[in-house]
């Protein structure tokens, strides 16, 4: 799996295309066990907010938020593929779906990848009364 310092990515239908700055390759690829991530099953990595640029199809992106409404999950409204999200645990980063990277035929070649305990989110421990 060859990861370029600047790598293009897209949803399944190609309506949404984006570019990622990955000078250090895929840093800490991971799964998450939160209710959203365990259902979508994607392997993700992260970049700073300015490391992801939408090239085409921003109008096709749909936002989904739940629970604390902090994380912002984006999906293609045409094919339904999860492309990226602004992280709750680090709002200065986007996590992106490694399976969307151009030329990555099988992101599961990265296995085993770390699994974050999203069901017990660190932000939930910081605020025990749920606000």
UniProtKB/TrEMBL annotation:
<feature type="domain" description="CENP-V/GFA">
    <location>
        <begin position="7"/>
        <end position="109"/>
    </location>
</feature>
<dbReference type="Pfam" id="PF04828">
    <property type="entry name" value="GFA"/>
</dbReference>
<keyword id="KW-0479">Metal-binding</keyword>
<protein>
    <recommendedName>
        <fullName>CENP-V/GFA domain-containing protein</fullName>
    </recommendedName>
</protein>
<dbReference type="InterPro" id="IPR006913">
    <property type="entry name" value="CENP-V/GFA"/>
</dbReference>
<dbReference type="GO" id="GO:0016846">
    <property type="term" value="F:carbon-sulfur lyase activity"/>
</dbReference>
<dbReference type="InterPro" id="IPR011057">
    <property type="entry name" value="Mss4-like_sf"/>
</dbReference>
<dbReference type="GO" id="GO:0046872">
    <property type="term" value="F:metal ion binding"/>
</dbReference>
<dbReference type="InterPro" id="IPR052355">
    <property type="entry name" value="CENP-V-like"/>
</dbReference>
<comment type="similarity">
    <text>Belongs to the Gfa family.</text>
</comment>
<keyword id="KW-0862">Zinc</keyword>
């Amino acid at each position: 799996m060859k990861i370029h310092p600047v790598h293009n990515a897209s949803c399944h239908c190609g309506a949404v295309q984006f570019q990622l700055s990955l000078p250090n390759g895929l840093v800490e690829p991971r799964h998450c066990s939160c209710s959203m991530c365990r259902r979508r099953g994607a392997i993700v990595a992260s970049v700073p907010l300015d490391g992801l640029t939408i090239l085409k199809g921003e109008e096709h992106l749909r936002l989904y938020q739940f629970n604390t409404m902090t994380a912002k999950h984006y999906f293609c409204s045409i094919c339904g593929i999860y492309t990226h999200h602004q992280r709750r645990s680090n709002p200065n980063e986007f996590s992106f779906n490694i399976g969307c990277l151009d030329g990555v035929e099988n992101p599961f070649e990265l296995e085993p990848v770390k699994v974050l305990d999203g069901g017990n989110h660190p932000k939930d421990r910081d605020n025990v009364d749920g606000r």
